[in-house]
Each structure stands twice: as structure tokens, then as C-alpha cells.
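Margin note from the TA: students keep mixing up input and output lines. Inputs are the sequences; the output is the structure of the whole complex. Example:
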Amino acid sequence: MTIARRRAEIEFHLFDVLGIDEVSRWPAFDGQDGTAWRSVIDTAEQLALSHFAPHNREADHREPWIENGKVRTVDGVKEAIAAFAEAGFMNAHRPVDEGGLGLPWTVVQGAFALFQAANIATAAYPFLTIAAANMLSAFGTEAQKVRFLPHLGSGRFLATMALSEPQAGSGLADIRTRARPLEDGSYALTGTKQWISGGAHALSDTIVHFVLARIEGAPAGVKGISLFIVPRDWVEADGSLGAFNNVALVSLLHKMGYRGTTSTILNLGEAGLCRGFLMGEAHRGLDYMFKMMNEARIGVGLGAAMLALAGFHCALDYCATRRQGRPLGDRNPDQPPVPIDQHPDVKHMLLAQKAYAEGSLGLCLYCATLVDRQQRHPDPATRQRSGVLLDLLTPVAKSFPSAYGPKANDLAIQCLGGYGYTRDFPVEQYYRDNRLNPIHEGTNGIQALDLLGRKLTRDGGDAYRALRATIHADLDGRSEPEIDELIRAWRRIDDAMTVLLVSFSAGRAADCLANASAFLDAFGLAVIAWRLAVQAHAAERSGKDSAAARGRRQALKWFAAVELPRVAPLLALVERCDPVAAETDAAWL
Amino acid sequence: MTIARRRAEIEFHLFDVLGIDEVSRWPAFDGQDGTAWRSVIDTAEQLALSHFAPHNREADHREPWIENGKVRTVDGVKEAIAAFAEAGFMNAHRPVDEGGLGLPWTVVQGAFALFQAANIATAAYPFLTIAAANMLSAFGTEAQKVRFLPHLGSGRFLATMALSEPQAGSGLADIRTRARPLEDGSYALTGTKQWISGGAHALSDTIVHFVLARIEGAPAGVKGISLFIVPRDWVEADGSLGAFNNVALVSLLHKMGYRGTTSTILNLGEAGLCRGFLMGEAHRGLDYMFKMMNEARIGVGLGAAMLALAGFHCALDYCATRRQGRPLGDRNPDQPPVPIDQHPDVKHMLLAQKAYAEGSLGLCLYCATLVDRQQRHPDPATRQRSGVLLDLLTPVAKSFPSAYGPKANDLAIQCLGGYGYTRDFPVEQYYRDNRLNPIHEGTNGIQALDLLGRKLTRDGGDAYRALRATIHADLDGRSEPEIDELIRAWRRIDDAMTVLLVSFSAGRAADCLANASAFLDAFGLAVIAWRLAVQAHAAERSGKDSAAARGRRQALKWFAAVELPRVAPLLALVERCDPVAAETDAAWL
């Protein structure tokens, strides 16, 4: 039942909120329509149910292990990935003439969300592979594409993003992995990579690592980092496999959640030559990686949102059937206890989960439509404007779902009480799995610096003005009380922007950035309120009195009443450059 | 190193903040002094390190299992409990003429906190046993005390609190376990109990269950519940063991954390006679249980605070040595990266953990001094007043640490990044263990109803006035900016109290209670700010410029700047009886 609800939620966003039908009128998607896209979602729902969900619990219980020198995973993972690739999902976004299905990114993301909800850990393998293939497609040479893309698309090869090292996680400037040019134009790599998800397994013929490294003599810092394609086993031009390429597993890392995804320390070139291909130009590796990374960040947000949604649906089911206690005003013990979803405190917890999960999902799918508009909209001005909005919203789409998704899972546990704390119900696993999301693909602290230090304040705040115009257009003429609250919150952010732009141009950027996380939180709340409002309006178009429309309206009201009042005090911290953190010497603590 | 820091923190609260030395002048503690108490803390530190900490990780990794029909636990648990009892900690609070050490409860709690931090799951066995023994000591007959107390004190028997049933957790009114009077004055019990911590194990000769049940013909609801002493194996008057008493293990429950503590479903009297002794009067079981429960609730808060503190200390150590990134204003990659505790965002996370952990711990130990004053203070008016304050603060001492302690653990994980998410560092276990605390011994939603619906509004708000007078006395004449913030927050609560008392007397209690959790949160924030202020002042008495004094001042400042602004909007929800939750029909969600 819950998977049907998840699918209905995805379709609501795609068709009712985001109006994806419009996309079928763009030349890029000629011949496609809503019917075709619904059948893609249908296939995803079926495969998620038949191939991804069944081993989700077992893969958590029995994390990948080493047996006879090979990394093993529970039964079902390899078959799930094969079925996923077989149905075309590895290539779903790629144009038909490149072997893909040519689908809009929004549809692809809507479908992928169902796999994430069913089994986030198994979905991580194709997630990384798709992101890598998109990067290769954008920046690789023709020869590189021919050599790798078909096999990444078929699932014969899987891929990783090998950025971090033991001493360099958030601080990529300090990457030490080295690349030495060889006579044939390839490079010899040496170094250690850590936290490499999907870095070792027996799920594909080989693993293609996309590795950040420094070419010998490169400048220090982020401007001296290049990107290399480094297969575990050498890949010939025709895609056939050669000898082991000396990408060696040092060890598996053991995590609190996401346990079905191997996390690894890898050694490159220690026991022999490890060769890789330079992708694109030397020293521009971080630019390319960030193209992928921005896509991956929204994908992290999407996964966090789906885990939140899955937990919310589980809590809804439980609270509707669990009877306990009596109404506050009528405690007669001779009456039977009521379902706990009649208690206001439980309703608060359900409304919070609904607002966090549906708002997060809505934002991530909205970002997917911005990708489509940026890449394929017939109007160049729309393409440009969509890119600007996407860039601005990416840190929010990564951080809000990954900060509030775990809160939603926390509330789902609380709704289920002792049961929620046991491994007999799925919510505790969602809670553990989701805890990775504020960490990987750029911690939420990094997102805060990205938003305030870069995206928001550059070009005199142009991107912000574009966002405000969009919100204005969406809410124009509305005057419900909760919309008024929302508009007030945005006016409050306008004021803060004025203060911040002055501070930044007066050279006080570092002072402002000391409270960047508070700003990100305030901004995220206002963004989500806007999406919840748009979603409530979309639901009300087919009748204000339907249960679904009332529910979305209540989630908006709850968010406006409980969360939006936090915006102003958070902004005050940033505006006054509150010094409490900056002036603290950690030695005092 | 971290355990030494924990011990120093406990001693700071006992001696510098709470002035426990004063207690040695009360007749009840004649002959004791600070030197003796420091040596008790010293013993606790040693035992926690030598017997509790070593198996903490393993007990989490390998939760209790059934082997040949017996429940097994990892090596070390039984020895730890034996060493704890041997050192006198089971009886530490009981008067010397009852075989105890006659220590103040504050000292006992300070010592116990060190065991909780070292291994919360193993500490749960004595925790439950001590609480049960205290209840028996207060309400049992002489014969019952003689039969059980010495063996609970020696650790030969361990105890449980058997309240919940599969259909009755928060709603104890619906308990179904039955008690039928037997001719010898004992009772035959039948029924099923669930979530019984420590309900099955081989750590003691037998297990004494303190069971809530209905005597046949008792009134419905909470006024028909009695309390029974039900040993797993029959206990003769001389303490020797008889036959199996038909308290049978149905199954072990498998939890996300706290895994070293068995959690059980028990069946009473299914396969044969299960006998128990009525404790106190019939139908008054819940009153007795709540005497114990209030003590246990503060103990839950204390455990949550210590897990938060343990995680905070781990994060401090990590952030001082992990080098990554450069200062915001000076990103030169030729300079080495700085320890991450120099980054403002990391300092925010450390300050938050410090405020949550030290504020929570301070409140719980303050409540322990209220227990001492209520029970042993020479002045009857002080005894009465301390009881009133204790009663009012108990739901806060349970809920704030258990709501904000997991937040502290969440931030500790974030400070450690990917490392924090792995099982190589202890913070992920703290996070999982601590997640139980908002659920057991009365969910935090139940605490909210207890505070607003009962403790705060009865007697026209007398208890609240007593608290306000205490706070006033503590802060009188202080005028630092953060103290002003704190006083403003309390004035805001005064206003809310006026509104609420009017609403309650106008019969609108149920409307107010729909936002009880928001009120509890606001009230808890203001209470913790008060304790942080008292703690900062205590640290400053030995010099304002010491690192420790500056650190406590910064934690107070951080809390005043970031958390106290949340008080007013939370109160507004309650004052206006915000209807968003109450008016929501769960079927809309």
C-alpha cells in the first residue's frame, strides 16, 4: 500500500504541480507524452517492488563482507541492478541516438525516487554510475565515450566518484593523489582514496573510478586538480577487459546505515602501474566534478526526501490502527481507546512529517524541471533563467531534505513508540540510512557557505531576484493567512539580503559567513513554504474539499504556524554578524 | 581522557554549582563531607572505566541472544554489575542502618552518571533495580522488605518495572493483566507484559518483577490498577529460591540501540501458577509506580545528558586534531590546513553540544539536590518547597535531555563527518542509544501533558511561582546581556501563564493541551538557560578569565542568541490555542 502512495505522490508532483505535460510540446521531447511517462513511473514502481524492496532489510542486517578476497553482497543486489539497467533506467535521460530513452530529467528523477525509497543502498550503485556517465557524456572525448559509455549504460560496468582522501574530505584543496604523464598520453596514478561508495564489489565486470588527482607540478589548491578515468581492470578501446589496473581495496568501512552500499578505502598504484585517462583539460577537474556534484546533490536531497516520505507513510498506517488513550476532553475508561492519530500531539508529528517530506520532494522535483528547462527549453531566455535558479536552489535541495528528512524519520519513530525503535518496523532503518545525507556530497555546512558565500551574493544578488520574481508569480493575488505569513518571511529575507550585500561589499564576508548555516536554515524554510503553497494550490485545483487538498492545506498551515516564525530570529543572527561562534576559542570548551 | 573530563564535569556541578558541601551540615548526613563524596565519585570513575566501558561496544554489536533456552549476554556484563553492587552502589542512598551507605542522592546520581556514560545499556540493570528497591523501601511491608531488599541490594536479584502491555504503552488505563486473590493472601497473576527492560537474563539468581495488574472486580481505568511483586522464581521468606514462578519469556525484542539491555515480552501464569505479593493498598498501584517513575524519569534525563556529554567530548577531541580547510578570510592553499575547531560553523556545533549536554546534566543534578532537600533538609518549609519544585521540573528533566541529547549526538556525528557515521568512533552508538530516551518512561508527549495539564496549572500556578522566585533569587542583580535575554524569556512565560490559567479556568484546557509539546519545549529552553547562567556564574567565581569560565559563558551566550528566540513563537502557539493540529482529520494526510 505504501509504495502505491509513494507513486501517487510522485505523479501528483510531476503532473499536477509541475505540469510536466507541457514538456511534450518542446521539440526535444517530440513524440513523448504523459501516457508514456506514466508507464515509465509504472515500470519503476514494479521494479522497485519486485527487485529493490525485497532485500532492503537483509542488506542492512548483513552488510557487505569479504570472502576469499572478494567483496560479497547479499543475494538480490546484482539482479536488481541488472533489472534496472535492462529496463533502460541507466540511460533513461540520454538521447535516443546515444542509446538512451530520451526522457525528461524530471521523469527520470521521479522514477528514480521510487528506487531510493525502496532501497536507498542498492539504488546508490546506479545513482553513482548515472552521474558519472552524465559527466563523461558532457566532458569526455569521443574515444572515452565509446570506450566506457555503452558499458556504463548496460550496467556491465558500474562507476564511483573518487574525490575524498583520508586527510581531505570537505577540504578538497589538499588532495594528494598524484598523476604522472606516460608516453602514450595516459597517466600513472598513485594515492589513497577514502569514503568511496561502491568502490569494491562483484556486481559488475569492472568498476570505473572517476578520480581527482594532481598532475605532477600542478599548482597548489583547487586550481591544480584534474579528473581521471581509472578502471579497476584495464578497459580496451572495444570495451573488453585487460589486466588488473592496481586499484586495490584497502578496507571496507562499516557504517551506521546505508549499509548495503560498500564504503571503501582504495589504494591506487601501490603494487604496480595504475593507469588512467585525463578527462577534459588538465587542472579543471573540480569544475567537471561539480557539474556532476550539483546533480548528485539534488539526488541526495531526493533520496532524503523519499526516506522521509516512506517513514511518514509507515507512521500514518500505524497511527490509524494503533488504539491508545482517550480524547483530551473525555477520558472515560469505559469507552474504548481511540486510534492515536486522533490525538493532537500525534497529528502535530504527522503534519510535520508531511510538510518536511512532501516539501522536500517537491523542491527536488522542481529542481529536476529546472534541469530540463535549462537544457531543453526552446526559449533561450528561459534556459538561462532556469540555470540561474537551479544553481541557487541546489544547496537548499541538498540540505533541507537531508536536515529535515531525518527529523521526519525521528518523528516516525516517535509515532510508533517502542515499536518504532525496534527492527521489526522499517522506520529505524530509514532514520539510520538518512543520517548519511547531511554528510556526503558536501556537508550541510559546506552547502551553507556555497549558498551565502557564492550563489546568493555574487552578481549583486541577481539569482535571488530571479527567485523572488518566480515566487511572486506563483503566489500573486493569493491572500490566505498562511500565504501572508510566507510573503512576510520572504520580505524579511529581502531585508536581510540588503544588509548582507552591503556587508559583503564592505569586506565583511567572513563575519557574515560565521552564521551561514543559520541563513541556510532560514532560506530553506522559506523555500519549502513556497513549494508547499504551490503544492496546496495544485491539489485544490481539482476541488478544495477533497481529503488530499485539505491535507496539503493543513501541512502548509502547520509549516506556516510552527516553522516560519523561526525565520526572523535566524536572519537576525546573520544580519548582526553574531560573534558568539567566531569569538569562541575552542580551547575554552 | 574523556572519562576524566566527565568526572571533572560531575564534580563541578556537585561542588561548585550545587554546593553539595552544605549538605554535610544537615543532621541526616552527619559525619560525611566533600572528601568522602569525592572518593565515591573516584570509585565510580574507576569502576566505570574498568568494568563498564570495556564491553560497551561489543554488547551493542552482539545483542543478547538465546542459547539452550537461556538468555545470554556478552562477557563482562555480569562482572560489571557484581563490581557495582560490591562497591555498595546498589544501596548507596539507603540509610546505613538499612545496609546502605547513607549518601546524599545528589552524590549517588553524580556517581551513577559516570556508569551511564560508560555503558548505558549495562547501567540499565542496576538503574531499574535501584528504582524498584526505593519503591519497595517506601511502600512495601516489613516482611516484603526483609524478603527482597537485601538481595536487590547485593545484586543477587535484579528487578524490572513491568507496566506496559502489547495494547497498553502510554495508555496504562487499558492494562489487562489480572490478579486473583489466593487463600494465603498472595495473588495469582495472568497476562502479557511487553517492553520489559531486563525482563530476562542470566545476570542474577532471579529477577523480581514489579507488575501493574488489575485485581478481579477492580474499577476500570487507572483507579483500578494495583502493584505486585512477582519474582521469576519463587522467593522464600529467608530469600532462598523455590520453584519457577511461571514468568516466561515470550521473545526478545531487537532494538536500534540500547542493545545490551534485554527488552522482552513476558507471559505471566500461562503454563502454571504465577504468584505475586500485593504491594501497599489495592488499586493504588499507579501512585506507587509514579513515585518510582518520577525518579526514573530524572534518571532517563541524566542518561541522555551523559550520552550527549560523552559525544561532545569525543567531538572536541576530534575537532582539535583534525586539520581541514583554511580560515574564511585567508584561503591560501600554501598554508597548512587548520584544525577544524577553528571554523565558525564547527564552533557553533560544539557550542550547541556544550549547552545541551551541560545544561541537561546540570538540571538533572539540580533535581537530585531537590530530592535530598525534600527528604532530608532540616527545615520543613524547605522540604515542602523542594518537593513542589521537583514535581514541576521532573517532566523537563526527562524531556529536555532526551530531546536535545540526541541533537547533541547528531551534531557530534556531523563534527566527525564520515568518520562519525562509522562504527570506528563511538558517536553513532551514542546517537542510537540516546534515541530510546524520548520514548521510554513516558514519551515526551506524555511529559508535555503532565507539565501543562497537571503540574503547572494546578493550585492556581503555585509551583510555577515557587520556581520563578528561585530563578529570581539566583539571577538577582545580574545584568549581562544574555541574562537580560533570559529574564525576558521568563517574563514571556509569565504572560503565557496568565493566559493559560484563564483558559484552563474557562474550561478550555483541551484546546490549550493541543499544543502542550510546544509549551514544554519553550519552558524547557528557559529552564536550561537558567541552569546555564547559574553554571556560568559558578565557574566565574574562581576567576572570569579561566578557559573553563569563558567556555561556560560562551555556551550561555550561544544558547541565549540561538535558542531563546524560539521561546516566544512557541508560546504564541499555545496562547492562541493554535488549531492546526486539532482541526486536522488524519484521513486527510
